[in-house]
Each structure stands twice: as structure tokens, then as C-alpha cells.
């Protein structure tokens, strides 16, 4: 089955202690869409400016991503620049130029409106609402978010949580949203806000799911080298939704394995700048790491 | 088989944001010995002063811990006081009174010298050496340590690492020792220093083993409440060594499961002040959490 993905489509200029890479393909929708494309057909919703390089359109196409929902508008593509510290855990934003994303109005082509799986990638909650408003009757909707929206668009976000099946956030965002530092207490409070499935990401420490079948502790694939973690969270949820959309059977029966596939897809993302390593990855590479992760965690 | 455990035997005065508990039974050897006692007979090596409460001797005895290597000397028992911050991850030492531990000379009773399993719990490396010098031919020796010894007794510690089968340390100590923040690079460097098995503890994020059969990612048992994490690392390695000593078969075949038992034993330690919850725990409680942890991590 197909998965519709909305989020930011951006150019990222990223500095790490050892290297600097300007104007890479980035944004939550780009990372999630490429990650999901390993497992299912993807329909992308986003906006770019006239400066958006053709090579990135070709990159999306190589991943067979449906671009009929990608608007190309007069003006500049959303541009983010950031810098990582030595240990790669802390990053700071150097500049944000919103460009065409500032006035973005998602418009769903007719062929998008009955997509069974919907990933509302990290973007303003109002835009996530707008996409949902245009959908017929999706089977499974998951939203991602970030601290910015908890801080400046909380009312919209809380309304959104009542409309989704699953919500994905990282541990510091969970604490910001619930004022709870214990993961169980945070999960309980977030369930009360609406979502049946809540996933808390913990970077290199993996992630935790809380759902109707209880808690699942999902490991991260351990990496020898982290080149650039930008987009890892988007790759995780993209891989997760893509794998779920491609799997037979009930969500409940598949979601743990879907998280493991998301985790492994995100591991490739971290090994190169932007999408450089992810786009060179093959499905067989992913399957190999999933098998390894099974061996690494068996007792 | 039995496990010999050396380390500190102390009185701990612990403050947390909500409570304060003076003169609890503490020390690396106390936590490790009680944890190991769920699985195997334990022989304790340590020293206490004349002020050491009788109720703590009785506590050791209830756990069937052999105390013929516990010296009671004129003077005061080692006393540590510390305070935890709100999130329980950071603690600071308020006072350390060494007392009789300052001049401690471990003396192994004859019946101790052929113990097959040896846990050199956290104490000065010179004392860990002294215990090893008195052993006949132990089957499996594991050492624990702390940042203090890396900073002030590195030469002794490096010599010790050549004499042990396994070494346990936490992630920040691994970085301090190796100057590597990537766990793989740190593990590789520590193996070169001697130990065949290296275990890196990551608190509530679990632990990682590197050994002849590769890497194992060991989950932590997720807790609803952390009352006092003091001694959790000692409980982990105590439970691990106790379970290994009680298991049949090769170390290689058992060590992953031993870590899971250590992890679960440590989870009980965190749920009460000092050893309060651990001493009320039953073997069946531990087995139940191990089974739960299996379910929590299956995919």
C-alpha cells in the first residue's frame, strides 16, 4: 500500500567539526520519503522554490517518489544551516530562511486522497491539519513534531493529537510536552491527549513504543561512525511507515518490526551527510542490518 | 559455584530531592554481594569499623553471605554522603570519611582462595591486585572501577586489566580511559589493554558487551519510579557474576543472559533507598522481570 508524506522539503547547509556541506537535500519530508521508498510507494506533499536543484528532483524520481503533490513556486527553497558540536549530540541553528515554505498551502492531488497510510512529518501543525482535512479515510495516520511547535503552536498540536493514530517525538520533547521526565509517566499523559500509539525516540539509545500491546524497547543499530545525524528521526519514522504500509496483517502485529526497520534505515542516514548514504543504500543492506540487530539483542 | 567479592563496605547517607536517608548499608561490595546472593553462594572481603550496625551484619547473613573475610577493626566505617539532583542522573558527593578503609589490607581465609568466580568490585586497584595475589587459580575474574582510579591510580589499573577476564565500566569512564566517545572505538582500545570481555554500562539506557562472540546490546528494565540509583552499577555486576557462577556451561554461552539478570537485579536496587528494596526482592520477582524484559524486546 502507499504512504502519503507531508513535511518540509529543504536545502540544508551542515557543518560538523570535520566537514562542511552546503545546500544538501534535506527537510523532514525528503528524509522520510526516501526512507519509506525502500518499502512502499510514496506520495510526497511539499513545496520548493525555483532555485531547487534539478538533481534533487531526479533523486526523488530514482526513489520512485510520486511528485504530483510537490509544488514548485516562484521564490527560494526553505534553507536551514546548522552546526554540530564535537560529540554530535548538540547542534545549533546558524540560519533559517523560510522562503516559499512561509506561505505553503498543501494541495492534495485526487490520486493522493485515498492513500491508506499518512505520515504527517515535522512541519507546522496547521499544515498537518490541512493535509488531514483533504484525506478521504486513511487507515493509519502518524504525526511527528518538534519542540518549536510545542512552544509556539501548542493549541494546534493538541487538536492534531486527537486526529492521529500515532505520535512520534523525542525524549526531550516528551518532557517539554508533559513536564514528566519518567518515560512511563510521559507516555501515559500523551495517550490521554489522543494517540493510541506513542513512540519516544532517544537517538543512539533507540526508541520506546507504547501501544495496545504494551511497551516495546527498540534498539538503535550501533554505528562505528556518525557523519551527520540530521534527518535521522525523519528517516526512522519514514522507514517505519513505509515498512508498515508494505506489510500484510494488523498494525499491532507489525509495528515492532516496523520500528526496527525504521531504526536501521536511520542508521544509514547518520553515516553520511544529508541523504548521501541513504540514497546509496539498497534494500538488501537494510535486511542485513535488521538480521544483525536481531543477533545483537538476543539472549 | 561460589563467587568471591571484594569492594567497599560502607555507610551511605543519601539525599534525593524528596527524601533523606542517613547511614544506609552501602558500598560496592555490599550491593554486589546481595545481588549475587540471589544466584550463588557469596564470599565477602571487606572491612568495617566498630560502629558498623549489627543489623547490617544480620542483613548479610540473611543473604547467606560468607563473612569470614569481613574484618571488623577499631575505628569508623567508611562513610559516604551524597545528593542527587531532580532528574536523578547527576549526583554530587557531600562528604567522604574513609575511616578503617584507609588502611584496609584484604586477607583471604583459606576457604576463599579457590573460589572459581572473582568480582573485584570498585575499590583501589592496589587492593584488587592484593586479592588476586592471594587467589589460587580462579576460573573467571571481573573487575569494576570508577573515574577516581582512572584519574589517580591509572598505572595500577592498567596492570590490573592485564590480569582480568572481564572489565566493567560506565560510558563516561570508558571515554575518560580511552579518549574515544564512540563505543566501538572505546571497546577496541579497552580490549587491547587486556580484558577479553568488556562491558560498558549506560544507566537507564542499558549496557553493551563486547566479547569473543561479538557485541550484545543489553536492555535496562524500564522503571516507573527511581527512588535512589546508588549501587545500581554494583548490583548489575554482582547479579551478573552471581548468575554466571550459578549457571552450567561456558562463559561465552551464558554471559548475555547473565547481563540481563544483572540488569534486572539492578532495577530493584533503584526502586528503594540503599538496599531497602533489593533485600525484599525474591528470586521469583527477578525471574518475572527477566521474562517481561524478553517480551519488551521481542520483534
Question: How would you sum up this structure, described in words?
Answer:
- 2 copies of one chain form a homodimer.
- Chain A is α/β, with parallel strands linked by helices and about 300 residues long.
- The first copy, chain A, contains 10 helices and 13 strands.
- A 9-stranded mixed β-sheet of chain A has the order 5-4-1-8-9-10-11-12-13, sandwiched between helices. In chain A, strands 3-2-6-7 form a 4-stranded mixed β-sheet.
- In chain A, strand 12 (about 205-210) and strand 13 (about 215-220) form a beta hairpin.
- The interface between A and B is medium-sized, with 32 and 32 residues.
Task: Please summarize what this structure is.
The structure is a homodimer of 299-residue chains. Chain A has 299 residues and is of the alpha/beta class.
Amino acid at each position: 500500500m502507499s504512504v502519503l508524506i507531508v513535511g518540509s522539503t529543504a536545502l540544508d547547509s551542515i557543518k560538523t567539526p570535520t566537514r562542511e556541506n552546503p545546500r544538501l537535500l534535506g527537510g523532514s519530508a525528503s528524509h522520510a520519503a526516501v526512507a519509506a521508498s525502500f518499502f512502499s510507494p510514496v506520495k510526497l506533499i511539499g513545496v520548493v522554490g525555483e532555485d531547487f536543484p534539478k538533481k534533487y528532483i531526479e533523486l526523488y524520481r530514482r526513489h520512485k517518489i510520486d511528485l504530483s503533490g510537490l509544488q514548485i513556486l516562484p521564490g527560494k527553497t526553505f534553507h536551514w544551516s546548522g552546526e554540530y558540536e564535537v560529540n554530535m549530540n548538540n547542534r545549533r541553528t546558524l540560519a533559517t530562511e523560510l522562503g516559499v515554505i512561509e506561505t505553503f498551502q498543501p494541495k492534495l492531488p485526487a490520486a493522493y486522497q485515498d492513500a491508506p497510510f499518512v505520515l504527517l512529518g515535522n512541519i507546522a501543525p496547521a499544515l498537518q491539519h490541512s493535509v488531514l482535512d483533504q484525506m478521504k479515510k486513511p487507515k493509519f495516520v502518524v504525526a511527528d513534531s518538534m519542540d518549536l511547535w510545542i512552544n509556539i503552536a501548542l493549541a494546534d498540536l493538541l487538536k492534531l493529537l486527537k486526529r492521529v493514530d500515532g505520535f512520534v517525538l523525542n525524549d526531550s520533547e516528551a518532557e517539554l510536552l508533559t513536564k514528566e521526565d519518567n518515560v512511563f509517566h510521559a507516555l501515559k499523559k500523551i495517550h490521554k491527549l489522543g494517540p493510541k500509539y506513542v513512540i519516544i525516540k532517544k537517538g543512539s539509545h533507540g526508541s520506546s513504543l507504547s501501544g495496545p500491546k504494551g511497551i516495546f524497547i527498540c534498539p538503535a543499530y550501533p554505528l562505528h561512525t556518525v557523519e551527520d545525524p540530521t534527518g535521522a528521526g525523519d528517516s526512522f519514522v519514514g522507514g517505519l511507515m513505509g515498512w508498515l504500509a508494505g506489510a500484510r496483517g494488523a498494525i499491532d502485529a507489525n509495528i515492532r518490526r516496523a520500528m526496527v526497520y525504521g531504526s536501521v534505515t536511520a542508521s544509514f542516514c547518520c553515516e553520511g551527510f544529508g541523504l548521501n548514504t541513504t540514497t546509496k543504500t539498497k534494500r538488501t543492506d537494510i535486511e542485513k542490518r535488521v538480521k544483525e540487530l536481531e543477533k545483537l539483542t538476543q539472549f
